[in-house]
């Protein structure tokens, strides 16, 4: 007589445990994937930021300005304006 | 029969159940801590989080040293899903000139079926790496230092290497001196790892955050540093010298505005670890004379009306004969003229009046027996003799027989510029750590000379510049208090078999409330051995630039 409810209870508990463990592990995996993905994005932003800082520094570097300035040449303006009366 | 069978079965089952229960108890309760630990060791790992090394900036907040992340590209044939040439084309598109840069290695790799793996030296950036997310292409992250101004201030900055664990270690300059501040703190994560070996971050058991290294903001004036290096190099080459050094200090604070040591363009580039301005000891020569005169004035052993009545002939001390650099005699020289003419004879009489005790007392007060304590690695400690016979004291009056570093000499001379107060030189102004500013502590300052002495010596130096051999070099709008010096270089304790000199010029501008104190040292100039014709022109050219810059 007692066997049936007892059996059902055990069965029910096992189902709950299985469902919960599936849910819980998939939740861990999802959260972990998200953290990993965010970390990769953060890292990539950091490196991009580093590259931008580097580019900006090169552009305003005195050494670079001096090197390029010595290569610059004046362009003779050949255009004339014809003013007609 | 059946009843007894079921009884036996029941007893056997119960017995088995008890055994299994005991076994469970053994493994799950008694052995639990040990097994837990074993399981943890198999699935948990300690992950290192490397901090970012601090950057170094000039006084205008321009980065002199940055961190650079690049990727080294490798190819692994078994993972290729496309034709090798197609993969190469894609690499070439993302990284132009890849094929030209690596033509030989590519050919070898392509034609050798046994070679499965190759790594190229080309450094790719983050964007290029993202584009090349193709099977068979692997990347290795390379962290290094990047110098936007190329070799500018290399002696100050130092360089980095790696220790056995791959941690960046500074060598020379600021990189070594501030290794602790720059390196930051390594972080750790202790947690389980997934099947791919990555740490499951949301199940971590313990972690300690990494702290990035402090950024360093120096006192280096980038424009001044630029001109110092440019004009020093031109000067070394023009005067056919072996090498040279220039250091500029802000008189009131001791902030180093620029510092450079270079060799002739034709010679091999020296190692960046050594900084001659702080590591090389030299005999200062006549640039030391104003300090001796200041000592004599300060102790009142002479006054400004001093006249050298014995300067009409050589000063004979025992078997030694002290004469002048130009072999001339200046009879009845005033104090001003002794400095103007750089009169060795006059100076030897002044130091004789000053006396050994007074001289050594001021020599120590001026910090010339110790390191200056500048925040750079590799400063040399000056050596000091213990015995001071009369001749040695006499030669010390014109800067021979004593040794100093360039930075030590500048620190001492700067006391004249800074109203008699000695300030310690420093490269770093402040640090930043997570937007928090940490000021670099000022070292103790103390009064060496009194105000009257400073007033007198400044007037003597100004007179010397305006009436001496360098007058023509001085721009009209510039007020300068300075002194030239030429020291013979001794080999094996003798000056006789060596014609090489160290030519120097030291001074500040303007004379009252000066903006800078600067020293120029040229080693073994061959066009002229004199400081007034080699170091002085460089000094004045730089001074006129600094006058506009500061």
Defining traits:
heterodimer; A: 85 residues; 76% helix; B: 550 residues; alpha+beta; Penicillin-binding protein 2a (Domain 2); 3 domains; five-stranded antiparallel beta sheet; 19 helices
Please explain how this structure is put together.
The complex is a heterodimer of chains A (85) and B (550). With 85 residues, chain A is mainly α. Chain A has 2 helices and no strands. Chain A has helices at 3-59, 62-69. The longest helix of chain A is centred in the middle third of the chain and has 57 residues, at 3-59. Chain A is rod-shaped, with a radius of gyration of 36 Å. In chain A, 2% of the residues are buried. The model of chain A has no long low-confidence stretch (mean pLDDT 81). Chain B has 550 residues and is an alpha+beta fold. In chain B, 35% of the residues lie in helices and 23% in strands. Chain B folds into 3 domains: 38-62 and 149-215, Penicillin-binding protein 2a (Domain 2); 70-144, Alpha-Beta Plaits (2-Layer Sandwich); 222-549, DD-peptidase/beta-lactamase superfamily (Beta-lactamase, 3-Layer(aba) Sandwich). In chain B, strand 2 and strand 3 (63-76) form a beta hairpin. In chain B, strands 2, 3, 4, 5, 10, 20 and 21 form a 7-stranded mixed sheet that branches. Chain B has a 5-stranded antiparallel sheet with strand order 12-11-25-24-23, with helices on both faces. Chain B has a 3-stranded antiparallel sheet with strand order 1-8-9. The termini of chain B are far apart. Chain B is built from 19 helices and 25 strands. The A-B interface holds A 28, 31-32, 35-36, 39, 44, 47-48, 50-51, 53-54, 57-58, 60-64, 66 and B 62-63, 66-69, 125-127, 130, 146, 148-150, 152, 194, 198, 200-203, 222-223, 226.
